[in-house]
Amino acid sequence: QPLLCCGSNSEGSLMPRPELSRRAFLHGQRYASSGTSESVLSGSNSNYVEEMYCAWLENPESVHKSWDVFFRSAAAGQAAQQAGKGSFLQSHGLAPTPTTAEKVVEDHLIRGHHVAQLDPLGILDADLDSFIPSDLITTIDKLGFYGLHESDLDKVFQLPTTTFIGGNENSLSLREIIKRLEHTYCQHIGLEFMFINDVEQCQWIRQKFETPGVMKFSNDDKRTLLARLVRSMRFEDFLARKWSSEKRFGLEGCEVMIPALKTIIDKSSEMGIEYVIMGMPHRGRLNVLANVIRKELEQIFCQFDPKLEAGSGDVKYHLGMYHERINRKTNKKITLSLMANPSHLEAVVPVVQGKTKAEQFYRGDTAGKKVMSILLHGDAAFAGQGVVYETFHLSDLPSYTTNGTIHVVVNNQIGFTTDPRMARSSPYPTDVARVVNAPIFHVNADDPEAVMYVCSVAAEWRNTFNKDVVVDLVCYRRRGHNEMDEPMFTQPLMYKQIHKQVPVLKKYADKLIADGTVTLQEFEEEIAKYDKICEEAYTRSKDNKILHIKHWLDSPWPGFFNPDGEPKSMSCPPTGISEELLTHIGNVASSVPVEDFKIHSGLSRILKARAEMTENRLVDWALAEYMAFGSVLKEGIHVRLSGQDVERGTFSHRHHVLHDQDVDKRICVPMNHLWEQQAPYTVCNSSLSEYGVLGFELGFAMASPNALVCWEAQFGDFHNTAQCIIDQFISSGQAKWVRHNGIVLLLPHGMEGMGPEHSSARPERFLQMSNDDSDAYPEFTEHFEVSQLYDCNWIVILLPFRKPLIVLTPKSLLRHPEAKSSFDEMVSGTSFQRVIPENGPAAEEPHEVKRVILCTGKVYYDLVKERKNQDLEKQVAITRLEQISPFPFDLLKEELEKYPTADLVWCQEEHKNSGYYDYVRPRFRTIVNRTRPIWYVGREPAAAAATGNKNTHLVSLRRFLDTAFNLEAFEGKTF
């Protein structure tokens, strides 16, 4: 609705205007984004404020929500006092005189967390600032700031209607007001939420914390909390006794995290959640597996056994698992999944979100009422790693939202050996969460009851508002970075205090024993009971029969594999489809299946060209992609394509989402109009993120084997900033965690003189990480093609198992007149061609061929054109590799044996130290048993992947084409 403001008519009185002045509007936006009212009423700003205030009087909804909150509080003079100006609104006769109670309440509400007692050690300020705001009453000597004296403390004040500290009382003495505010905002809980620009949400939080008596626990609740603390601490003690010299990254110093997580899960289960997906770093992981996920202890203990079956490719504190069980608190079934994660601490964050989104999608859980995620973080990583910010910015995007995540920060107040004052510029490690208006609850981890209450509220918040929330457990790390590390080298004062620190279990047990909630005997029996459980599990862990990595799957696919984990079949079915289906998909791809939908005139030409290709039984890359996706959708397989600008396509070739030229936000996705009973097609432009979004799509692909999940980079080299996901999860995920995944990476690649970042997808990196042996000549068994794919670490076609696939997609070839295929190559009975052999004149008389050029990708079309120009079509054969890794030994052996006297040349447009040459050369030599050389033709080695100068590009292209067809180029040379 239009904004309103006030101006003057000819008589000087105030009158409504149809919209705010631009300067007033921008001033309002500036305040809204900063979340502070400091100097908001300064002389240069006051005119703009007055305009907005008049608009607000006319209609409170006409201004930004934050200004609505401001004007309500400014009516009490609070903002004016902070600015040190006196009340602007009062001076203009626009507001009543404020009450002291209102001022005091607002000050504690906004700034109380700065003086809360959050550090269990009592030596650091959680916000890295020991300054106490001068306008915050924490001691009597601060009363003077408000013009008050000690005698005013017993005066009774009317309470503001926005506060809940009075309970059923409408007025309190100033002394009692301060006491209650300090109890809420300045003790072991510090609340940050006043930056949230939603009044309802702010009031909800205030009610949860200000209402007197809300933080009361029954004796049963206290005993449950004590038992959970016993399990948390005694588990760590047991590991320390049995494996004192092993790294285990224990939880000592933050044992309260276990009951905290269990409280979140209990409360979420109570509110209807059935599936919780978790991600966390290594610290405390074994404890979470044991006491939250409830993995069998013997399975954890056997991971310390050096006889563990080979195949476990990672350390025990990186592994994940999946478990269905009954929640004892609610007696409801709940599924828990802890995702495996490498030492790149926050890399798992978007992966968890992607899997959560997928589980919600397949359950039809559009509001996130059945599936949710919990993410644990270390303080240094949460503040320091950019993928956290990238993932937060996915939290409210339609195709990426998971309807709220609970973030739990284990705030050790140190990162490895780095003091937080050296590790972040923000006051708190959690400040990154403010960008999405997530409330932040800081809590002293040595106060277990405060922690439990905060976690319960966090779970309620997430399930009420479907928004992110952060719980900051301010704690300490009792040992060094790991159990072998000496922390006194770098933090001597902190660790002197830690060595004197009484463990939280003893503190809490002493408290409950003192107030009669439990007896000393009951406490000791609880300890003995859990110690016995650990000892019995330790004995069972000696049984070698249980040593198997399959127990550590975090994403099982029931029904997809045989019970032994092997594929149900080793055959590779044909991938072609009927001509009728090809024609139908082509016709839909060239139409607008929605009435009265106006498309762009340029798009009309593109659709017309698609229709003509379909009629002529031809497909280019874009139409072939359409047919591939469409045929999979018909089989009930969900297809998801994600990335920057994928809806249209970076090169304006795809156009899977059509936009009405006259109606905003009216779109049409023809792919979802192929058949009545088809799987859904999801195509979604992502935020400008590679690391976070690729991690998200990887997680999405983990949820089900019956989905085709693709991530496309704008240009191939843009995967650089997602390299962590590629290295740590995609390339090695199966070897480390037995994690199957069918994600597809579409990486535009090709050198046209457009500069390095817009040319090369760095194929050499993927080939370097491929796990086939260049020197091992394989045995060609009956199902060689499929078994070779099963043994490798990435590639996927229509197979009974899943592997990641790297596709180097074209740029200029998208519109190349020769880069088209006939329906004949796609109809029923056809399959993917790993190698496309020479099929022209050279193949008819192979003994006359003087040179075989082997290549892959775009350079083939340059070579074919040059061969024709030089009239060498009978003397030079050109063979294409369509599958580079795993290397097609069988088909290439057959192809090379056709030309026994010909030179063998590998030609690529990439530089010699890039591209494919270092990968293919030793494998070609293995095929010919090192009896024939394989010569290199291409660009010379270079540091940059490509030139950005068009002329330099053409000169180097001309040079290597000349070499490729100079039939005397390698005569007399040795190899």
From TrEMBL:
Cofactor(s) the protein requires to work: thiamine diphosphate; Mg(2+)
Keywords linked to the UniProt accession: Calcium, Glycolysis, Magnesium, Metal-binding, Mitochondrion, Oxidoreductase, Thiamine pyrophosphate, Transit peptide
One GO MF term attached to the UniProt entry: thiamine pyrophosphate binding
Pfam hit, one: OxoGdeHyase_C
InterPro entries: 2-oxogl_dehyd_N, 2oxoglutarate_DH_E1, DH_E1, KGD_C_sf, ODO-1/KGD_C, THDP-binding, Transketolase-like_Pyr-bd
Domain of life: Eukaryota
GO cellular component entries: mitochondrial matrix; oxoglutarate dehydrogenase complex
Reactions catalysed: N(6)-[(R)-lipoyl]-L-lysyl-[protein] + 2-oxoglutarate + H(+) = N(6)-[(R)-S(8)-succinyldihydrolipoyl]-L-lysyl-[protein] + CO2
Top EC class for this record: oxidoreductase
The keyword Mitochondrion belongs to this UniProt entry's keyword annotation: yes
Subcellular location(s) of the protein: Mitochondrion matrix
Transketolase-like pyrimidine-binding domain span: 619-816
Function: 2-oxoglutarate dehydrogenase (E1-like) component of the 2-oxoglutarate dehydrogenase multienzyme complex (OGDHC) which mediates the decarboxylation of alpha-ketoglutarate in the tricarboxylic acid cycle. The OGDHC complex catalyzes the overall conversion of 2-oxoglutarate to succinyl-CoA and CO(2) while reducing NAD(+) to NADH. The OGDHC complex is mainly active in the mitochondrion. Involved in the inhibition of cell proliferation and in apoptosis.
Listed NCBIfam families: 2oxo_dh_E1 (TIGR00239), PRK09404.1 (NF006914), PRK12270.1 (NF008907)
Family: Belongs to the alpha-ketoglutarate dehydrogenase family.
Protein name: 2-oxoglutarate dehydrogenase-like, mitochondrial
Lineage: Eukaryota, Metazoa, Chordata, Craniata, Vertebrata
